[in-house]
Design goal:
Ribosomal Protein L9, domain 1, 8 strands, 3 domains, single chain, elongated, 3-stranded antiparallel β-sheet
């Protein structure tokens, strides 16, 4: 079936182009999704209008893509995977997975077709993955693939954290005890000084009263 594309479609054509596709693809996908119209005389007469509208839409998309690329440029994307010997992954990190993780971690939606991963990542490590929406709109995202924690690793971290918490609590208790002792000692010193001052005052009073009595 001959149709006129209303939007850019990868591996099919750009908006405004007259292309021939399979009937089922046109009826079940392109036309219902308003991505194309049957190539009637009326539609063919509107090709230039369709192209101009597509240019506006394309420019908006590129601007949005550039903004999204900038948002993820300096933020490492950490993906955890099961790994075996020699840092090899059980499975692989794909473009679709990277797009999903960007959405989940950064709340930024990037078309997976803009993620230029030459081949799935199959090892632990750090990887710089290119992003490309057009020849002029490019970027990159830093992907860090880390191993999933094993149960024994989780248990060990919990034990270490518990020990650290107890040590911190004990240190705080000791500091409070020492502070209380210091306060108590200061009070004792002040009390002794007060008694000594009182004794001196009373002694002085007695000395001044004795001559008067004689």
């Amino acid at each position: 079936m001959k149709v006129v594309l209303l939007d850019d479609i990868v591996n099919v054509g750009e908006a405004g182009e007259l292309v021939e596709v399979k009937n089922g693809y046109a009826r079940n996908y392109l036309i219902p999704q308003q991505l194309a119209e049957r190539a009637t005389k009326d539609v063919l007469n509107r090709i230039e209008l369709i192209k101009r509208a597509a240019e506006t839409k394309r420019a908006r998309r590129m601007s949005e893509a550039a903004g999204k690329f900038a948002e993820v440029a300096d933020r490492p994307l950490v993906i955890t995977m099961k790994a075996g010997t020699e840092s090899r992954l059980f499975g692989a990190v794909t473009s679709a997975m990277i797009a999903d993780e960007i959405q989940r971690q950064f709340e930024v939606e990037i078309d997976r077709r803009h993620i230029m991963l030459e081949e799935p990542i199959k090892h632990l490590g750090e990887f710089t993955v290119p992003l490309k929406a057009s020849a002029d709109v490019t970027g990159e995202v830093k992907v860090v693939v880390e191993p999933e924690s094993k149960p024994e690793d989780i248990e060990r971290r919990l034990i270490e954290q518990d020990r650290a918490d107890r040590e911190a609590a004990e240190a705080e208790a000791r500091a409070a005890e020492e502070a209380a002792k210091a306060d108590a000692n200061e009070e004792v010193v002040e009390a002794v000084e007060a008694v000594e001052a009182q004794d001196k005052y009373e002694a002085h009073e007695e000395e001044t009263e004795e001559p008067a009595a004689g």
